[in-house]
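Researcher: Going back to the complex we discussed earlier. I've cleaned up the inputs and rechecked each line, so this should be the final set. Can you rerun the prediction on the complete assembly and write out the structure?
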Amino acid sequence: DTGVSQDPRHKITKRGQNVTFRCDPISEHNRLYWYRQTLGQGPEFLTYFQNEAQLEKSRLLSDRFSAERPKGSFSTLEIQRTEQGDSAMYLCASSPAGPYGYTFGSGTRLTVV
Amino acid sequence: QQQVKQSPQSLIVQKGGIPIINCAYENTAFDYFPWYQQFPGKGPALLIAIRPDVSEKKEGRFTISFNKSAKQFSLHIMDSQPGDSATYFCAASRKNDMRFGAGTRLTVKP
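Model: Rerun complete. Updated structure for the full complex:
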């Protein structure tokens, strides 16, 4: 499979629990992006990696959020002490160069109850 | 802050019609304007994109019209089909800063 893979597809968690999502980008893409999408809205930028370096973080990414890309391949997004407002679709995208040729994964839908 | 404004929120057309979706941006530094198509349960997929030095781009049934002075661009879908029913997002970017519109839910009736 040559697309962007995200796991899990769905996650239901209780408020206050920690959750971790994984993204496997297209193997030759060195840029990886995390976005959040709420119902009826477009994706909102969270953070961006070039290889293993996290180069940009949105103000949306509070202290409860952390993202890693330890070997410049897959990435993880962790949300600590989840809140109901964290309920959203979390999308990962990868590209070979900048915003051109973005490929999105199918996302992880998080529901915090 | 919403840097890309998209309209309409929803659109219903008959098969064969030409839906038009409009976007306006604020930041004149944006230099890449893609459109994405998203089906339920899937991530957005790149449909077509344009740079500001071009006023129009066509790919198959999809056309982007770009008006740099007005800071507006639009997507036209020729001969629309029920399979085009999806949510469409415009976006504008500069380097790695990509901003999306709120989306337009398109329904093409048979």
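Model: Worth noting: The longest strand of chain A covers residues 88-95.
Researcher: Good, that matches what I expected from the previous run.
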